[in-house]
Amino acid sequence: xxxxxxxxxxxxxxxxxxxxxxxxxxxxxxxxxxxxxxxxxxxxxxxxxxxxxxxxxxxxxxxxxxxxxxxxxxxxxxxxxxxxxxxxxxxxxxxxxxxxxxxxxxxxxxxxxxxxxxxxxxxxxxxxxxxxxxxxxxxxxxxxxxxxxxxxxxxxxxxxxxxxxxxxxxxxxxxxxxxxxxxxxxxxxxxxxxxxxxxxxxxxxxxxxxxxxxxxxxxxxxxxxxxxxxxxxxxxxxxxxxxxxxx
Length: 247
Known about the structure:
The chain is of the alpha/beta class.
């Protein structure tokens, strides 16, 4: 399969270049293919063995998060929103495979605490049951990866773009879920707030969304087939997550 070189960050993004490009991700899929294949098998088994776990994170966005964490090797990962622990287990497996790092999760719902396997959480996970807006006020984390998948409202987005983003060091990878379920986010939505924040700072972004970037979505699916990484772990196919590097 031929991977298009220097693919734009996103058809509508005019920000400065981002590390999240199709070409870069293709290289990471190839570099970590054996480890990713193992993690996909583990996550599939985790899902089958925990039928009550809601798996909101689709395969491409989960895999890209895993790959970026493997490559950047963050010492501190902050996850806002875990629900039943599906995204949490992906993040913890990346830290495990790196052999270093700690995940700090914040959520109003504590279901993840009951679902995440002890062998993954021990000595690498701290769960805080509470409102991230309060719990992260004045935080002292040296955030190396930020993962946001919580209240999908414009008001919540205004909080983290206004109060949290400026505490994240430049160059840090950031994931924001549920932005691109369609070609463009709805007006007055979380996604629109985030995109406006990025545009105002000239920061480019990447999405594997089937609706917003169908060419990227198809190219990654084809690449995965060539690497024996095809077949669904999660039944979802939207992959609406937005990725960028903090400016």
